[in-house]
Amino acid sequence: LRGSKSFTAALPGETERNGHGLAYKSVSVGHLEAPPLSPSRLSLGRASSTATSTAAPEQGRPRDYLVLAIFSCFCPVWPINVVALVFSIMSRNSGQQGDMDGARRLGRMARLLSIVSIILGTIIIVLYISLSVRGNISF
């Protein structure tokens, strides 16, 4: 014979709540009642709805531009390219946690800072080489 996973318990005040006058209630072990969640918690607890999933197709993970940020670290504009690297890593972490909008936003910022760093670094290198060839600068 199999043992049952149900039990009967006397719940205080149950007769007033259910209106049937029964002093006992039978429930299963895996299905104990919990207080109902408020409507705002229910809406926050759902990850997606049919309206959002049909309107926006799945696009995959957004780019984090980590290679570009690492490449920009070789340019002599260190505060900007280090910040680009940090934004790139934050974008990767956000994407892994499921925050696609945040990952996309951080990835765009990492791309912008990396491009600015590469352009400014190239300008600094070209100016340094041209001035050192002319003999006007000596370090």
TrEMBL record:
Positions in coiled-coil regions: none
Highest taxon of source: Eukaryota
Compartment(s) where it occurs, according to its Swiss-Prot or TrEMBL record: Membrane
Chain ranges passing through the membrane: 65-89, 110-131
UniProt entry tagged with the keyword Membrane: yes
Alphabetical keyword list: Membrane, Transmembrane, Transmembrane helix
Keyword set includes Secreted: no
Annotated protein name in UniProt: TUSC5 protein
Originating species: Urocolius indicus (Red-faced mousebird)
Encoding gene (name): Tusc5
